[in-house]
Write a structure and sequence with these properties.
Elements: H1 28-61, E1 63-65, H2 67-71, E2 84-93, H3 97-101, E3 111-121, E4 129-132, E5 138-141, E6 144-145, E7 151-152, E8 155-159, H4 160-166, H5 169-180, E9 186-191, H6 192-201, E10 205-209, E11 213-214, E12 221-222, E13 225-229, H7 231-239, H8 249-269, H9 276-288, E14 290-293, H10 299-308, E15 318-321, E16 324-326, E17 334-336, H11 338-350
Parallel strand pairs: 1-14, 2-9, 4-15
Antiparallel strand pairs: 2-3, 3-4, 5-8, 6-7, 9-14, 10-13, 11-12, 16-17
């Protein structure tokens, strides 16, 4: 039998060494499995890298303000039964061509806190109360420290709206705490121009318009009735003032409260788990429009806080305006009705029902 006819392992003595450098022949099945394994590994690494990039990007969107450092120890006491209190500001900048095109920006520069809400979430997290502070309210601004460390002396009879633009968000928190005696646990600022992208990402917001709006300044023209507003229309809606029945900022507050509730309801109705792409778009738009206190300035902290409020239903959230009356010296400004305001803030501090009298504002012809 020739060597060619021998079967492998036969025809050679046990002492015959194997040929070095001989390549192992892989079967077709082995090659396919190897390709699948390598491909799977690449996909896992790519997915992990993408997920990390998404997380890092969204986390980096959120801007933080160190409220606690700026305010120090001179603050209202945190009561054990006071629930959670948030100061929510809607900051509105008309600077830049894009913002001006969004309505009502002609001749206006800088950023203002056109919307201010103290949101009280009671123990149990089942029902919340949102108290609006009119931007034209005359308040006493306390001594404040700016972001650069400089001190700004306190002043009486300043317009609430000016505190943000002149001194910064920490001073707004301090002003609210001084006027209410309510300890503010968290700060949330929403950039109005930025939230345009959020509204578009969720596919619009359904609004039942109470009266026709034909506003030359914002360019919003809608009849009374149900409407679905996109981002641009929503921004015009919350900026509308002069075409309303009394043309005052107090009427605009009603629109802003209505819109906020509609927006919260729309976000809650989104199937975020069923559509990762939509979830990312919404999260990207929301975080890009947010500034928070340092304790909330991360996705982890925001998600934990959001989960703690899962039981809060926008349909049952009570919206109240700080009871105000027109100032006797400057009729273009309003001042708090002290007796009613004190009753309102006391109820918030003690997590108790708000008296009906504290929900009425003489500036709106109520009581």
């Amino acid at each position: 039998m020739s060597q060619d006819d021998t079967t492998p392992g036969q025809g050679s003595s046990p002492e015959t060494p194997r040929r070095r450098g001989r390549k192992r022949v892989r079967t077709r099945g082995q090659r396919i499995r190897r390709v699948i394994l390598v491909s799977a590994l690449v996909l896992v690494l790519a997915a992990g890298g993408t997920a990390w990039w998404f997380w890092s990007h969204l986390n980096g969107n959120i801007k933080g303000v160190d409220i606690n450092k700026a305010l120090g120890e001179d603050r209202p006491e945190k009561l054990p039964t006071s629930g959670q209190n948030l100061l929510v500001l809607g900051s509105d900048s008309r600077a830049g061509a894009e913002n001006k095109e969004l309505g009502g920006g002609a001749g206006v520069s800088g950023a203002r806190s056109d919307t201010a809400l103290v949101v009280h979430i009671p123990e149990g997290r089942d029902k919340a109360v949102a108290v609006s502070i009119p931007r034209d309210t005359l308040v006493t601004r306390p001594d404040c420290t700016k972001g650069d460390g400089s001190t700004v002396a306190g002043k009486d009879r300043v317009m609430f709206n000016s505190v943000y633009s002149q001194v910064g968000p920490a001073c707004v928190v301090k002003t609210v705490e001084k006027m209410s005696g309510v300890r503010i646990d968290h700060y949330l600022e929403i950039n109005f121009a930025g939230f345009k992208g959020l509204v578009d990402a969720i596919g619009g917001v359904n609004i039942d318009v109470k009266e026709p709006i034909h506003d030359k300044k914002t360019g919003l023209n809608v009849d009374a009735g149900p409407h679905k507003f996109d981002g641009t229309e929503s921004l015009k809606f919350v900026r509308t003032r002069y075409s309303l029945s009394d043309g005052t900022d107090l009427s605009r507050i009603g629109l802003q409260q209505q819109f906020l509730m509609a927006l919260l309801k729309e976000v809650q109705s989104q199937d975020l788990l069923g559509s990762p792409t939509s979830a990312y778009k919404i999260a990207n738009s929301a975080t890009a429009a947010l500034t928070t206190d340092d304790e909330l300035a991360s996705l982890t902290s925001l998600a934990k806080f959001a989960r703690s409020m899962n039981g809060v239903n926008p349909d049952t959230m009570e919206t109240i305006m700080l009871p105000v009356e027109y100032d006797k010296i400057d009729h273009n400004r309003v001042v708090a009705v002290e007796s009613r305001a004190k009753a309102l803030w006391k109820a918030i501090r003690e997590d108790s029902p708000i008296p009906e009298s504290a929900k009425k504002s003489p500036a709106l012809g109520q009581g």
